[in-house]
Amino acid sequence: MNAVITGASKGIGKAIAEKLAQEGCNVAICARHAGALADAKATIQQKNPNATILAESVDMGDKSQVLAFAGKVMATFSRIDILVNNAGIFIPGALQQEEDGLLEKLMAVNVYSAYHLTRALLPAMIPHRNGHIFNLCSTASYKAYPNGGSYGITKHALLGFSKNLREELIPHHIKVTTVSPGPTLTASWDGFEAPADRMMPPEDIASVIWSAWSLAKQTVVEEILLRPMLGDI
């Protein structure tokens, strides 16, 4: 099996890549920072020394880089079984106080990257009438909150993209699942005061994704919503 995970140098993306490699998948990952990406590749390879691990430095806000990454993936793997659109930026702020251009920046990374990469990789999925696309949304995709700003807008948009994609890919037997975690213990929360034991471990998100993938061919989990046991922070 071959899997592609974006934004996989740390946090949820890295946990997903480790889990899929451990379960026997070849893995293609990308992230912006080459150093963290190299460290992640080494860690993922340890989970499965026999797996092929492709790691590329990519700015997911740049369409040309996203398409170049897709090309390298297609040159490495003849088919794609699992695509995890995880790359994203979390920047809170009130709409009237945000810096100009923030919405465009967040849309490019949080929404357009998933759109462009999915379109580019579908030719490696549709002919096989099999495969699973996971779009990492957020609890912010369902419920707006003060200071959510442009981030909340992009996560609502990604949920819409995922729902539309689900309907379009039914005839091709490709599953689409929206995964929407609440507060998870990742670098996105650096600088925020929140106890670690109130947050979900990223490995839980990875386990849920593997469970959804492992279901029978005639079964698809369309939406997964996860929150800390004691609620949002």
Automatic annotation (TrEMBL):
Q: What GO molecular functions are on record for this protein? A: oxidoreductase activity
Per the record, a Pfam family? adh_short
Question: Per its UniProt record, what InterPro entries does this chain match?
Answer: NAD(P)-bd_dom_sf, Sc_DH/Rdtase_CS, SDR_fam
Show the GO cellular component annotation of the record: membrane
Q: Which UniProt keywords apply?
A: Oxidoreductase
Q: Which family does it belong to?
A: Belongs to the short-chain dehydrogenases/reductases (SDR) family.
- The name under which this protein is listed is NADP-dependent 3-hydroxy acid dehydrogenase YdfG
Give the organism the record lists: Chitinophaga polysaccharea
Traced from the root, the source organism's taxonomic lineage reads:
Bacteria, Pseudomonadati, Bacteroidota, Chitinophagia, Chitinophagales
